[in-house]
Amino acid sequence: MPERQRQSAAYLSSSRIGRRRELFRTAELNAAGWAALTGFCVSGAAAGLTISRFTGIPNWITMPVGGFTAFAVVLAADRSKWANMHTTYTWTDNLAEVERIATVLQRVGVSVLVVVNGTDWPSLDYRNGDRRHVDRAFRDAGLPPPS
User: Fold this and answer.
1) CA dihedral 123, 129, 133, 134 (to 10 degrees)
2) How many CB atoms lie within 10 A of CB 69?
3) Does any domain span residue 21?
4) pLDDT tens string 50-71
5) Is 136 contained in some domain?
6) Do 95 and 58 fall within a single domain?
7) pLDDT tens digits along 70-98
8) Does residue 113 lie in a domain region?
9) CA geometry: angle at 65 spanning 62 and 67, to 5°?
10) What is the residue range of 107's domain?
11) Shortest CA distance to 10 belongs to which of 1, 20, 22?
């Protein structure tokens, strides 16, 4: 490897450009978790097979729908849990600026708290489910939105 390439390789990121969205936001599944999810989807497909036996709808329709429905239920539960979790965001040491953004967010119906911890900078505390409102308020104020 040429010397120039070797020197610059230390500065290159090993990750891809951009951020890949994770399928689950709160669950980090290991092999046992993926096996349990697969089993749950298989049981959904079996329920679809049972439905096809009673209704006369073809198996090739009800089995995939049952498996997908089981997966969608797990995904919806994960997203609901994530939306109800709280997060904090700090971008400045100016308490008045943080309170101003909090007031803007409260006007649009976002439940937000200004948190000041001793020597730390003030921060906003809000639900993850209100992320779009928070991003919009920050963009409207000319500030970088939380990432």
Assistant:
1) 20
2) 14
3) no
4) 999 999 999 999 999 999 999 9
5) yes
6) no
7) 999 999 999 999 999 999 998 888 899 99
8) yes
9) 110
10) 86-140
11) 1
